[in-house]
Amino acid sequence: MTLSDQPAVAPSRRTHPSPSAPVVPSAGVLRPLGMDEITVTGGFWREYQSLNAESIIGHCLEWMERVGWIRNFDLAAAGTLGSDHAGIEFVDSEVYKLLEAMAWELGRSADEALAATYSSLVARVAAAQESDGYLHTSFGHPGQRERFSDLEWGHELYCFGHLLQAAVARLRTGHDDDLPAVARRVADMLYREFGPGGRTAVCGHPEIEPALAEFARATGDKRYFELARLFVERRGTGTLAPIEYGPEYFQDDVPVRDAEVLRGHAVRALYLAAGALDVAVDTDDVALKNAVARQWENTVARRTYITGGIGSHHRDESFGADFELPPDRAYSETCAGIASIMLSWRLLLATGEARYADHIERTLLNNVLASPRADGRAFFYTNTLHQRTAGVPPHPTDVSKRADSSMRAPWFEVSCCPTNVARTLANIPLYFATADDAGVQLHHYGDYRVDTRVGGERVALTVATDYPFDGEIAVTIHAAPLAGLRLSLRIPAWAREGATWRCADPTVTFELLEGHVAVSGACAAGTVIRLDLPVQPRLTFPDPRIDAIRGEVAVERGPLVLALESVDLPQGVTLDQVRLDTSAPLEGTAAGATAHLSVVAHGAGGEWPYGGAHTVASEALGPVSLIPYYRWANRGPSTMRVFTPIADSNSETA
Amino acid sequence: MTLSDQPAVAPSRRTHPSPSAPVVPSAGVLRPLGMDEITVTGGFWREYQSLNAESIIGHCLEWMERVGWIRNFDLAAAGTLGSDHAGIEFVDSEVYKLLEAMAWELGRSADEALAATYSSLVARVAAAQESDGYLHTSFGHPGQRERFSDLEWGHELYCFGHLLQAAVARLRTGHDDDLPAVARRVADMLYREFGPGGRTAVCGHPEIEPALAEFARATGDKRYFELARLFVERRGTGTLAPIEYGPEYFQDDVPVRDAEVLRGHAVRALYLAAGALDVAVDTDDVALKNAVARQWENTVARRTYITGGIGSHHRDESFGADFELPPDRAYSETCAGIASIMLSWRLLLATGEARYADHIERTLLNNVLASPRADGRAFFYTNTLHQRTAGVPPHPTDVSKRADSSMRAPWFEVSCCPTNVARTLANIPLYFATADDAGVQLHHYGDYRVDTRVGGERVALTVATDYPFDGEIAVTIHAAPLAGLRLSLRIPAWAREGATWRCADPTVTFELLEGHVAVSGACAAGTVIRLDLPVQPRLTFPDPRIDAIRGEVAVERGPLVLALESVDLPQGVTLDQVRLDTSAPLEGTAAGATAHLSVVAHGAGGEWPYGGAHTVASEALGPVSLIPYYRWANRGPSTMRVFTPIADSNSETA
After folding, report:
1. Is A547 in contact with B547 (CB distance < 8 Å)?
2. Does the distance separating the beta carbons of B540 and A645 come in below 8 Å?
3. Is the ipTM of this complex over 0.90?
4. Contact B541 A653 (CB under 8 A)
5. What local confidence, expressed as pLDDT, does residue A18 receive?
């Protein structure tokens, strides 16, 4: 579908012709494609688009009506909002993330009912805006705290950031109407308050930084970009008051350009890094760009779970020390995974390096997609890698008290993850491919169509595959430039050995480069390029510095991390008895694998769990199924582990 | 010293002649000895008594004056206390714990300056008591919340509990004066408010339960005991409102007598269990006693660190699931160790089973004693088993924001541990020995003297040893009953094989029983009984269900858990490179051991810490010193680990 197919959902004027995409840097190696240039045609990703459109978005809307978070705006508009505000300080942001999701979804589909719902929700938000542009339901109303009186914990600018991102989605899908107008007034108010000559301050929760950068790009108003830059530069200079968790919690310990690794609250750290990269790219600040890239590198190398999940401390939702990655205490917040993708995507656009696309794929498939339940009506907030006890499903109408529910929950007191999943899935194909002056790059595989222009000439192709379950990928060219097509196909790191490619047309050439294979050729319409990635299951061992999984092994299959779930074990066998025989072959199954397991005998347990060396007897169990991690906990309460002890390791002498 | 040696420190009358001890059950297998019956004479424990008397008690007093926690009482007495209250809701309890420490210390020493300080502090507390007996600096004053308006988090009864325990210490050291009078009025007020016919409620933080039980025993007023019983029985019936951490946080999920294991907030769980056992013992409630014993068993077997420390969740200071014991996230709060000793001691008195004494020894030497710095002026609140990065010492005049400082800190916003250490060390010898109708039981070894009566006849003996560093223990008998002495010497579980005993008098007989050796004989004055415990260092392996330390091994020496601290490694070697060669001999040193280590080469680290199997090369490092865990972090910032990876385990194929 192209933009011209869309119905006008509200009075609007066309914005300038930048791609219909969430991130459009002014410079960079790769150019993002817009919603009019890339379309999912079926398969795995169509199912997720449908889940989002038919379940998740509506689920979030229903819940926010039920718990009064939308009504907060109505009360504010009526002048009757006060200490009866529903929810914690930053629930406005959930409404904005849902508006962002709806805007992208409207950019994809012509759902009139959704358009009406969207317009109505925007109207309720807009009605709450004050005459000077300020718009927040938790501050400044009678009986509430003063505006900007609690920058450490108030989340005001965080909420404004999500409002601006919702406006960017609306602008980039072709409508400069009510919400962008509201957002301009908010951004102008912020510029007056915090811009040059204003107060030297930052928000305790970064998010305004990437939002202002993108809003500047989408509106062309450079003041907003300057404000983003100021917020990035002020961070780490101690403008925030001391808090219990220390200044690193909100990255106020070290200036962004001096930091070596991401630290503190994971979502905060990643949103900030994304905004810092936006600033670096558009101001050609190489030192800042390198600083962010270095932080990404060190964080991925030392502070990231195999699923791409990050954050190992529940207490403050923060990174632990290097290699402190306990699977049973993995926080791995869904929002941190989404924020990680936001950062990796910006680095990919800036550098073109395939490792960023690799990490997006890992995080998307194994962390973010684990969050929604198969029916899209319950979510993981945290994403543990080892569930020791079978959880109790939250009641379908209860707001979950705790972030670390061991079962997916329909809603949370802090419910950032469901709406973040919704806005991410709403523009998911935009992460699949990019273009540059020479050609097109395919970073992710699925059933989709690309129709864009390279050097002024049309390039059209379709991708067809059962990926991530199967490694056979067919790219059919429908239109290529007269001088020939240059196409880049990402080869994931796990496929470097074993990936093959071919084309029936002998004039099409292939060259394996760092992280991708470069395809060149005339590529007449109908030319099919085939890529085969080796998705047979494989054993993956941890760096020995990750003490918590020493002597254990994971199974991956293609881009999917697999998990052993108790419901797949024979009756009477518990997950803490199981060992994986690394010498026996793994077999691929439709979506997962089977592995040969053995079982050790644990009695009722001794009086004291530490003692002299002794050998634990084990018995072969034969092959047992492993499923994709992202699908676990969809068959009722269970226990689960991603890393399984290796059979006959020294760990058994205990 | 006997009680008659003590100067009167305030107008007082003698209480009934129960032992001068903190816990005096009305029934039980063993009888606690009082301060007049057991006296430290030198060595290891004298050093700790001196540290407490000369540093810790004064340090706590100085800090509480400095931060205004004592001044709160002055303001309350003057009627000027309000919203300017210093500190969090339960800082009164720190003053009470210090008063308890001082009372026990005054029971031991005749320090007139301390007596004057004590009396002055009591007077300041007493002046703040209201006419109806209520006494709290955080509730009920102008601008403050109403009394008992926040039982979930207010800690009012928790504070009263510590006040009662301070009064018990005063009563049991021979003085029924001002503080016991204050405490009676508090207890009477509580009985009116929460007793039969009063409100059916409990405090969110247990502590009032064991305190009331003991105050009842010390005063003979059975109403207080009845109130303790009511509080125990009400727990687990959902009288507390829902909180973020769920009802198990304050043990309101299940009635005490129905629970299988300790859970929720560790200190809360243990204080409650101690009070429940007090109730069970004095009411001969076998089901309740068995429930507490079962909870202790399951907790020790599955939810306890090798140091005796408990609590693996920082977020809510709680137990994790069974076998969820990550060393680098060990919370192991010092107060939880103290609470664990309180519970084990009560179980030991009730049953006489040596396993409880074993666990007291482990927890005292390896968890509680780790808290105070060698100079007694800084403390660990949490006691990690694996320090990954060298911490930054807190500034000597700063109140530490965080519980989980990686270095000992002089004071904390929640500063429960220093005063808890003070009150524990102040009566430490009372845990060393007990008596029954037949004889005397020695549970712990050190330089001390016992002088008591058994069956109406005097028993006097001295113990001399360099334990815990050396295993040779000499018990010299000075007085024994005419019919002969029966003496029980605990054989710790780790010494069951290898312990030897002897006596030059061939008429003295020995019989090895469960956990102890029973000695019988005429034992003329001067008879020396020698016990030799095998304290050579040994390897200790974890249960394989403790995933976080799979493939790792600890070294213990006698009752001491040893640790490898980075300051003992050669220059250039980091703790995450080290492997322990379990085939090479361990050698004992003065206080610790040497072990043969090797070093694996970690480069700068790969881009991604998960991958295919490969072997890591290692190089022998030779013998390296391990020190007693409790002494670590006394030589500047360092890294440390209790469990070290085993050389050449499968963990290296990664």
Report:
1. no
2. no
3. yes
4. yes
5. 79
